[in-house]
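Go through this pair.

…
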Amino acid sequence: MSTVRDRLLDALDHAAGHDGNALDAPIALLWTDEARQWAGAVGQLRRDRLILTLGAYDPAIWQGPAYWLRTVISGELVVDGSPGGLPIVYLPGASRGDLRAIADIDSALAPIAGLQHRCELFGHPNGKDWTVTSLLSNPDSGLGLSVAGDQETAKGLAAGMARLLDMPVAQLAHRHIDADFVHGLLNPDPVRALLNYIGDPARARSTMDNAAWTAFLQQAEHDYRFSPERDGEVEAARLLGLAKGAWGAVWQRYREHPSDYPNIPDRLRAARPDELLPEPMSAWPQENEAKEDQLRAALLDLPNLHAAPARSTLLQLEAEHRERRNWVWSQLGEAPLANALEHIARVAELTTPAVQQATVDAIASGYASDGWRVDQAAIDAIADAPTGPARDAVAAVLDAIYRPWLHDLATALQTAIGPEANADTYAAGAAPVVADGDAVVFVDGLRLDVAHRLRGRLESVGLDTELTSSLAALPTITETAKPVLVPVDQGQLAAGDVLDARRAPDGPSAGMAVLEGLMEKARIQVLRGAETGDPSGVAWTETGEIDSRGHKLGVDLVDELDNQVDRIADRVRQLIAAGWRRITVVTDHGWLLLPNGLPKNESLPVAVTVKKKGRCARVKPGAHIDTPTVPWHWDRDVRIAVAVGITCFEKNKPYEHGGVSPQECVVPRLVVTAGAAPTSDVTLGQLLWRGLRLRALLSGLPDGATVQLRATAGDPTSVIADHVDVTQEAGQYTWFVPDDHEDEVVHVVVVDAAGAILLQRATTVGRNT
């Protein structure tokens, strides 16, 4: 298992590498460390690498003055016990800048300076020293861990390196490393020591010196009435599972972070009492596994029941298994069906009333009000069961209770529309009306339940939202429905040859190039990628890949939805931060998703169609078919065949759209505006550049507020430099900006504990105005 030590050595080796075809091999690797953060690690790394330290002469620890270092580097002097290899020269208290400032270089460092052109430097890609925080958190050249950026954490990491080095990286990967975590490394923690012992006694002993081990033995005897040397780890696991007396706090600690102790489940398995129903049942993994197996069998049997008794059975199962969501095994991902059952029961409750025949407006209104919650619960149930057997069980139960509801609801909407639908029966939503300061964000396949997720994300960061719904153009496919949403004169578009619109009267198909041309003619900015445009005008942009990922992944789309929602939310926040007054999020259609696939429909021969897709087809003029039809949005004389209910003209389709159902037809429209600005007394007294160093004086920061230097004011991921303390003056923040940002506009941003911006100020790197 890879440890922090292993990864740090890998980083050193990588820095020492060179292109043998272009460069001579380095004679040494220079490791500058102005803040002396790595001092605690160097001694422990010497058993693996030849690491020399600049300092007072002490050959026992491979330390000496500059001329001694040069002698060792040249090979004229060999240090005792050296593992060999390329010398690594650790320079505590020296920075890269110190090496390069030849005119002012310290006399103790001067003999080394001349070697730098024949050596490689171990440092951050931005040209600065690697700090412990930056190396642990850097996703490209470091370990990619989540590390707090405050000074207390940084100091603690430097002081705790001796203990951190031997920690497995996998154990840290899902933790946020902050001051509290680091203090746990530095300070005695008998509960953690006890859990470490239960999981791996040999490893726990190897991490303690004799004094620490003796203290641990005494603590175990005194506080927990347990002797590690006499009783062993299985007995400790039995006491842990029973959780009586002082062991209750140990069990609680284990429950808080069970992934920190990956071997404890096996210990608990071995320690389970012999009783038929051992108490507490929640402590023993076998009990959870047995109940998961029982639940899986029950769910797989549900398709044999009619929908009503299946729903009743589900509610009984939920009452029986609800408690297991509070067991530690749920937290460890070992109770996926107990977790999924919460959402399955929600599907059962919400689909209990039979679907009634009604008008288009009544069906659309009911779905927009509450029906989308069924789809949300079904998606959540699938997502909570990521493994094959668990997902198969969820798929089976959704076939029993969700599939009939989907089919009945789709059939009701198809009946309400009818083959001769007119604008009074079914009217597609128009393009948003825009004015200066408005940006339209198009998302392909933003189904209504997913739009509610997006709304929650945006409101959680202080943005105001208004979510309404309308009907998609028929058929519910992008080439038909997307052009309807473009905020230009719709008279410039006409029916195409297949299922697409075209530029009127007989121009090319209205693909994105044509639509962009119409928008540019209407003075609408088309923003690509991360462009933010001019907020004094009108803009159109596109983001998200929900529909394309759905077609590619099928049911596994559920595992990506949260990432897609985050991506869309980030784009909206970026536009709001850039100054756009109002963002309108629109979409062309929704979709149907069933894990076991939509039923195959064999009723429509290909020969009678101009174009046939998964849920719809353009019918040839005069062709006789038995499949229901609806008028085409772009030419009401053209008949569009739609698959009955939730059937599909193609097989093996768990994800599809193009037909008539509330999930495909009732589409969201989300209007987003900036929320009320947080009130604060934050003031910025001064911004002063000295070369690439920026100093800011701030006052009035509330508790929990942070100050950042960002490339883009509204993008919290665009921080370009860490703030450093260079004086004791209260309220002073200083950044050293990488020279590749010179003459760029950057932003000093103050954000509160929730991430809302309290103050921002633009400044040009290196320039005082």
In short: The CA atoms of residues 725 and 734 lie 7 Å apart. The longest strand covers residues 464-471. The first helix runs from residue 4 to 15. The mean pLDDT is 89.
